[in-house]
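Standup notes
- DV: blocked on the single-chain target, sequence here:
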Amino acid sequence: MRKVFTKLVFTILSLGSIAASAQENDLGAWYMYFGNNKISKKLNWHNEIQYRNFNAAGDLEQLLIRTGIGYDLTENNNNVLLGYGFIISRQYINGEKKENIEHRIFQQFITKQKFGRFNLQHRYRLEERFLQDDFRMRFRYMIGLNIPVNKKEMLPNSLYVSVYNEIFLNLDSPVFDRNRVYGALGYVINKNMRVEAGYMNQIQENRNRGQIQIGFYNNIPFNKN
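- DV (later): unblocked, structure below
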């Protein structure tokens, strides 16, 4: 299984080098950390940091920090969450880089289903976005699927395929904001940690852009049970 993990590491490094050499092709890179840690039997703490670049590294497009407290309506499923996000965004306008700061409150509901090897997740999220000179509201729906490859379950030392589609809809005009399509190869390190490397294509009204993504997931519980 060490060979499998080594192959995944080489895949991640290869994706990083692709992003480094493809800046002129409008290919960016996102480096992401996601934490979902149990506080009690029903409560969980969500925490994440996403470092998004126009290129492989160094040219920051967006820094996103998000946190929240969730509650399971049923055992380990049907989670409702209230959260907050702090976002620094930078855009090139007429060759000059402009910075915007956003404070975001969000509410979400996640439900999971399992069909054999297929681990399905639905996420519904409502966002209240406090921009520097504006206020906006947005709805997001994501459907994601994880499929283990070399084992029947998402167990330690297993490889898996991850895909998702997420649509963003504004509550004002224009209604369509963006759509994201994602595919990745993942590796389960242990029962509480996994890593993914993949590609996401983001479609906006007048822009279509690709992103190399590398993500680390931490589910280490804080409660003794």
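- Follow-up: Residues 15-25 have pLDDT under 50 and may be disordered.
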